[in-house]
Protein: GAE2 protein
Amino acid sequence: KYQKTALTAAESAKSKTGRVILITGTGGFVGFHCALALKKRGDGVLGMDNFNSYYPVGIKYDRVETLERAGVYTFKADLNDRSFMDHILKEYGVTHVLALAAQAGVRYATKDPASYVSSNISGFVNLLEACRFCDPMPRIVYASSSSVYGLNTVSPFSEEHQVDRPASLYAATKKANEMIAHTYNHIYGLSLTGLRFFTVYGPWGRPDMFAFSATIKIHKGEALKIFQGPGGSELERDFTFIDDIVAGCVASVDKIPASTKETAHCKVYNLGNKDPVTVTYMIECLERAIGKKAIKNYVPMPPTGDVLKTSADVSLAEKELGYKPTTSLQDGINKFIEWYDEYYKEGLTKEMASYVPY
Ligand code: NAD
Structure:
């Protein structure tokens, strides 16, 4: 499905730093960017992805082809394939896992709940099982989500807040990851850092997410469906630029202690922009970058798992990871639109032109 180079997995795993990092989900948005960043600084990097068709796969193959040219090899494999996971961890001496593969998307969980259980719970446990039988055991940084804050109304969200009222099955699986991480740390001494990402956007982004799908609609002159809360209140999101998220992931890889009974930790951090804005403001940023007005259609929010507001308190990540989000929404959107114009300079692919996000 994509142009393979002569790159081998062994070359891709060669490290100048002593770190060999398996990134799950390199066909995906965040995994792609993290793989580029870690490879660039000299880490050995291996990727894997099952290329699921939740959104058009063409962009996943393009990401992976770009990674190949940068020296990162991606295996086509599923997290649930235990013999593959055992093999890749041991054969290449993986020291760290950046676990980003998951069935993403809040609303789609109402359509296909089993895919969330399979990738995000069974797949995650399978990965941890494979890790615990390695000697030494790798350190694991994994993606959680701001969605774990669910119906929490205290704002901004801090890691100290209770998170036991998920609004979607997706959120429930992410919370389950954090609890599963806790047990693997407690029983086996695996070291695990969970990162609660807040609505990530940027170049090579996800077509199912608002910035991307709204851009397609603005270009086509189609109306944007904008959800409203009770009393016509506006939805707010702490949109976070991909480069800031990558910086947080890289810092987490660097700071996570070894997976031994004596040193291992189990922690979670918010990675957000600490600047929530309304969806209408996001549209204004898109309009300025694209140079065209959007048609807006405000509709009541359906009960499909969205929450009214997300807002990150990132003081813990600032203190312990040195995390510092630096990209304003307008600057980040300008970079996204620059990429989008170049990537689709010959028009949308057929697959993308007919895609309707769930
Ligand atoms: P993405 O969908 O672009 O990437 C995930 C990748 O994982 C996909 O390419 C998919 O094919 C792959 N995958 C899914 N199930 C798999 C399996 N069983 N085996 C192997 N590969 C599998 O999503 P993303 O935006 O890059 O998200 C990365 C991680 O961050 C996910 O865990 C997601 O839940 C989390 N997250 C993302 C955001 C965001 O705004 N992008 C916000 C919060 C949390």
Observations:
- The first helix runs from residue 9 to 13.
- The chain has twelve helices and 13 strands.
